[in-house]
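Appendix B. Raw example, untouched.
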Amino acid sequence: MSADSEDPAWRRRYPLRPFIAASAAVVRDGRVLLAARGQAPMRGIYTLPGGQVEVGETLAEAALRELHEEVGVVAEVVANLDPLEVIERDGDGAVMFHFVIHPHAARWRSGEPTTGPEALDLRWVTPDEARDLPTTKGLHGVIAQALAAMGDER
């Protein structure tokens, strides 16, 4: 596959600037929804549903749109959480990927999650259950923040 391919993973390699993304830590009955990534990079690694912010879209709007598009769930944003950076370098030290991800704590409203091209597997997990899965860096801290933001709804 060439660098000018239509594959999004290739188009995001060796960026001139970071990509901005948003995600949703959806809480339902004290559990958080995790998705095993269906695409590179990090295919099969569990993380929060989310994706790139589109022009003219707020971070929260992007998180909720991506959540619905990727897994079919509708939620309501409750709080902004601390952003994360994902920087991956190649063997020569050049930046191959750079994402700034803005997670949000969200309350589940409707829809049962369904797998698809963006999500190989979906699980509602407790923080302890999440620790038994291969996850993206920083995910456990985001889960803790999301559950704290939900307060007594757990």
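End of appendix B.
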